[in-house]
Write a structure and sequence with these properties.
Blueprint: E1 2-15, E2 18-31, E3 35-39, H1 46-53, E4 61-66, E5 69-70, H2 76-86, E6 87-90, H3 102-112, H4 119-132, H5 148-160, E7 166-170, H6 178-194, E8 198-202, E9 214-219, E10 222-227
Parallel strand pairs: 3-8, 3-9, 6-7, 7-8
Antiparallel strand pairs: 1-2, 1-4, 4-5, 9-10
Helix pairs in contact: 3-4, 5-6
Bound molecules: adenosine-5'-diphosphate (ADP) and magnesium ion.
Amino acid sequence: MTLLKIKGVRKTFTNGEIEEEILKGINLSLKEGEVTAMVGASGSGKSTLLTIAAGLQPTSDGQVIFEGENMSIMSSEEVRKVRASKFGFVFQFAYLVPFLTVEEQLQLMLDVSETKLKKQEQKNEVNRILKLVGMDHRKMAYPSSLSGGERQRVAIARAIIHKPKVLFADEPTASLDSKKSEEVMLLIRDLTKTLNITTLMVTHDEEMLVYTDRIIKMSDGVILQDVI
Ligand SMILES: Nc1ncnc2c1ncn2[C@@H]1O[C@H](COP(=O)(O)OP(=O)(O)O)[C@@H](O)[C@H]1O
Ligand SMILES: [Mg+2]
């Protein structure tokens, strides 16, 4: 099923006097249970498209349709609610809170995402997700004692603990070595399949593309190629 649809999306930025069109009419439908990777040269508009699809910035023209609802005409509060309850985010760096343990990072996320679980249910949920990402043995650890790959696993756990429908990942393996990159990519793929998430990611790493269902090649604000 198509969960997220991008229709005729354009994005223009104005730098002083100069107007530059960064996205030039993008059409894209993303299906549940699939990992779609965006590739392309730096500056081709990948992150801009990802953040627009995620409701983090508005379009200049066109629509983003999530679960049949046009996000482009929602109020910023409505968009925030969709983002908080239905979307998860992973970036190049894990951005964990240095003074919280792994377990506490996830509890904090449950507290802010309005899931309304009781304390014991929260604990169970945190344990379940940590098992899923292979980090349950490190739940009392602080970020400084984790490896880069382990931190990214915790970041992924934090991104999915509120059961989002869509996972947005911008260069999630860019700061990892090739073995750790492969492990993190396999984890993203497994979670997408087992939890039936719709995953949209950006990557520079050609080796990661074997783990994706679909590859979108961006060039200069347009989709050059779409390989399924
Ligand atoms: N907020 C902004 N204001 C002005 N220009 C921007 C802004 N965000 C992105 N750009 C420009 O849009 C182009 C595409 O950026 P981006 O989407 O980050 O590319 P990619 O992720 O493919 O490297 C770049 O030339 C960048 O400088
Ligand atoms: Mg980028």
